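Risk mitigation, structural track. In case the binding assays with magnesium ion fail to produce interpretable data, a predicted complex structure has been prepared as a fallback.
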Amino acid sequence: MAINKQQVRTALTHVMHPEMDKDLVTLDMIEDLIIQDSFITFTIDLPEKDPKLESKLKELCEDAIRKFVDENAVLDITTAVNISKFRNNEDKGEFPGQGHRKKREEKQEQGDDEVLSGVKNIIAVASGKGGVGKSTVAVNLACGLARTGAKVGLLDTDIYGPSIPTMMDAHGRPNITTKKKLIPKEKYGVRFLSMGMLVDPDQAMIWRGPMVTSAVKQFMNEVEWGELDYMVLDLPPGTGDIQLTLVQTVPLTGAVIVSTPQDVALDDARKGVAMFKKVNVPVLGMVENMAYFIPEDMPEKKYHIFGKHGVRNLAERMGTNFLGEIPLEQKVRESSDEGKPIVLGDMGTTSAQKFVELSNNVIQQLAIRNQEQDPTEKIDIKIKP
Ligand SMILES: Nc1ncnc2c1ncn2[C@@H]1O[C@H](COP(=O)(O)OP(=O)(O)O)[C@@H](O)[C@H]1O
Ligand SMILES: [Mg+2]
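Fallback model:
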């Protein structure tokens, strides 16, 4: 029989905090509970670092789940220090109650939550293949949009290979408001978060579709995004179940498909376009990344090392817009690794100019799309309890 959250929470009410004389659920110490088949993962929040207590609590939680829920459960329990969450109640000698959270979880389980209701446009950046520059495009697009003065968010949903913390040079767990919402990091006028700030990529490797979707949903709903003109989502590479579920969970305004001009990448990009069409998400257009190589010492040269105009031609064949080509330039890679996206840096580089053009084309396509079509409806996929 499938395990549900209620069973796990009930089991955890049997785990007493050794010093507080209350159980972990009453103390509101359990966060990010996700269940997929017999895989259970959650975080134990603590007001301060205490390795001895952490391992003791993990052990007690594991025992309780094996005893009351499923003796063969696969467990991934992490601990996190969350100072702000417990600060208000320190002097009263107790942790906050759980009423608020419980209500919100119930609401979410009923599926009547508004995903990203303060966001005007949600753009998914997708690719069929990994390594084609999807994150590079997502980050530079977000910063390029912010350059125009727009309010922009960026969410890295690629739990298997999150790269936005590096590309924006911001690491560590996000802060939490008194209402227990995550506060996005903010830099270069972009509010952003990465799944990589909350889940360990090594653990995430064994996650399956519904867990990823559930985690991403929480990420959208439990974050203080505020009002945004644009939200850019960096999707995990590929067109499998995870991507399909994700794009249906969020009311996407449109998708941007990134590919290199190589045949192997183009095949997968075609699948990407087909996937969005299948679920009625408008494809805003395609981007040709690594379109040609520009040597640093001979910037007037262009070498089409992965083939010429592959993405441009494919876009035309598929009746999709072509949003622009980004050259392969060493400075793009360097600025990514330094955490300062090239679109904000040296306008002397072709890539920076091309990313500005790309952002402008996306703004234009969004405007056309919003005039011609109704907002995309999200399909509420029931996640297995
Ligand atoms: N146009 C480009 N010029 C130079 N390097 C690039 C370019 N696009 C991507 N890269 C580099 O290629 C690598 C993979 O890019 P990334 O954006 O992480 O791909 P993906 O998200 O599709 O896996 C990164 O090291 C990145 O800096
Ligand atoms: Mg990436």
